[in-house]
Amino acid sequence: MPAIAKLVPEETVFFLCDVQTRFKNAIFGFDELVLTISKMLKIAKVLEIPVIVTEQNPKGLGSTIPDIDLPSLGPLLLATIEKGLFSMVTPEVKALLQERAQIKSVVLFGIESHVCVLQSALDFIEAGYNVHVIADGVSSCNKEEIPFALARIRQSGGYITTSESAAFQLQRDAGVPGFKLFSNVIKEEKDNTVRTLQKLFQHRAVL
After folding, report:
1. Taken in order 65, 95, 138, 141, is the CA torsion positive or negative?
2. Strand pairing report for 105-111 and 130-139
3. How far apart are CA 12 and CA 185, in angstroms?
4. Helical axes 30-47 vs 179-188, angle rounded to 10°
5. Count of alpha carbons within 13 Å of 149, Cβ hemisphere only?
6. What is the pTM of this model?
7. Positions marked active-site
8. Cβ proximity of 93 and 81 under 8 Å
9. How far, in Å, CA of 199 to CA of 126, rounded?
10. Helices 190-200 + 179-188 axis angle, to 10
11. Strand pairing partners for 160?
């Protein structure tokens, strides 16, 4: 029977992979991708989930696009890490996770799906984490690469989900005091969610 890996806020970290300024005009559905990422960061704030950001060679590729409001995370932003590795599993990231032994799940979004996202997912899986990749939160320059990357992650034991599905898994209960804030985010993001799904999933087969 396949393993069941449920998302629990206290055991989860969000990872934002390399959504930098130089990629803006190269990545398929970049604007829609940013909408999903912004939604995930709102969810992080409501549910108090920490976030780790990486930037691939920022001197050449720029910093994280300013449309993504990282300062609003406050102390939930654990680090923004410069890297040369394609994988996000750098020594700095390993150290941050080792300091948080309760972490079991990684929620991964960013670019490119077939390079840095894929290699990060495989390394996190190898390290023993449950990896949940946000299907409407990843993309590539060539859209045809995306379904193959997601299939490869799934074949290796990762979980492919959507931003809204992951958000509701993390929320778990409509009867808790914080649900109204969560519900407000979902309602505010409704049109963006539809726009993003229609753009990013139009060329993808169902996994």
Report:
1. positive
2. parallel
3. 19
4. 170
5. 25
6. 0.94
7. 18, 83, 116
8. yes
9. 32
10. 50
11. 133
* Number of Cβ atoms within 10 Å of the Cβ of 189: 22
Q: Are 148 and 118 in contact (CB under 8 A)?
A: no
Distances (CA, A) of 119 to 37, 87, 148, 175: 19, 5, 13, 38
179 neighbors 167 (Cβ within 8 angstroms)? no
Structure tokens at 49: 């989930």
Helices (H), strands (E): how many in the chain?
Answer: 8, 6
Question: What would the pLDDT profile of 32-70 be if each residue is shown by its tens digit?
Answer: 999 999 999 999 999 999 999 999 999 999 999 999 999
Q: What is the pLDDT of residues 151-162, one digit of tens each?
A: 999 999 999 999
Q: What tokens does 140 get? A: 């590539």
Rounded CA gap, 167 and 144, in Å?
27
